[in-house]
Amino acid sequence: MIGHYFDFHQPRDLDEAAALLAAFREDASVLGGGTMLVPSMSANLVCPGHVISLGALRLDEIALDDTHLHIGAMTTYAQLLASPLVARQAPLLAAMAAQVTGGASIVNQGTLGGAASYANPSSDAPGCLAALEAEFELRSSQGVRHVAAREFFIDAFCTARRADEFLIGVRVPRDTTLVACEYQKYKASASSWPIVTVACSLHRGEQISVRLAVGAAGRRPAYRRFAIDKQVLLAPDAFIEHAAISARDLVGEGWSDELADADYRRAVVPGVVKRHLRILLTGTKT
Hints:
Elements: E1 7-9, H1 14-24, E2 28-31, H2 37-42, E3 50-53, E4 62-64, E5 68-72, H3 77-82, H4 84-89, H5 91-98, H6 104-109, H7 112-118, H8 125-131, E6 135-140, E7 143-148, H9 149-152, E8 153-155, E9 158-159, E10 166-173, E11 178-187, E12 194-204, E13 208-215, E14 222-228, H10 230-234, H11 237-251, H12 262-282
Parallel strand pairs: 1-3, 2-3
Antiparallel strand pairs: 4-5, 5-10, 6-7, 6-10, 8-9, 11-12, 12-13, 13-14
Helix pairs in contact: 11-12
């Protein structure tokens, strides 16, 4: 039960939502699927004076243009899984959505935009979106601005979103160079938050590259793109070792919570990165 009074607002369009946020700023919380905000309010972890719902703004469209796959901020995990566009254009995102923990209530109610905005280090969305080199569309009374994933996730539970802005969508670049991708997370139990997530993909364009993102291990996603040559595909061991150590170093100080401390998470990173890069590059599970 929520133990404090607040004003509930359900704006009818983007302009009205932006005006409300401009007026209330830090005293307002934005309500998406509610899977994080409502429990936090019930536990008195956050006590906003105003709650602004995005439910009437139709921000759950998935569309494709010449350059990007556009995913509305209110798109649920279930909608991601049901979308042929996501399956074709962003299979890494579909793989992540298929592994979301929490059962039908989270899959059907939880939203991609909400997970990104909440920026819990121990969650699936930040690392996956970093690996996809996604871009975030933020709306305010001043208009729309776009922020790349590498700049959006700043720290634990902290993003580049200003108090007068709300997330309206995520843009994933169209990529005809994708050859294969892998997403996996490691958990203390079937129902727990991840301890480490690994998202990686292999690309063949003018040059061959590997994109690697590690989530949950640090306070923000660790991401790096590696340029490789054909010889690496024939003998990948040295590259895999190098990438695994680089990933651990990119994690930085690490993230601690009740499931695992920072030292343990950082120690796990090289092993899980090696495993999934080997699958990605050779198709061999070890």
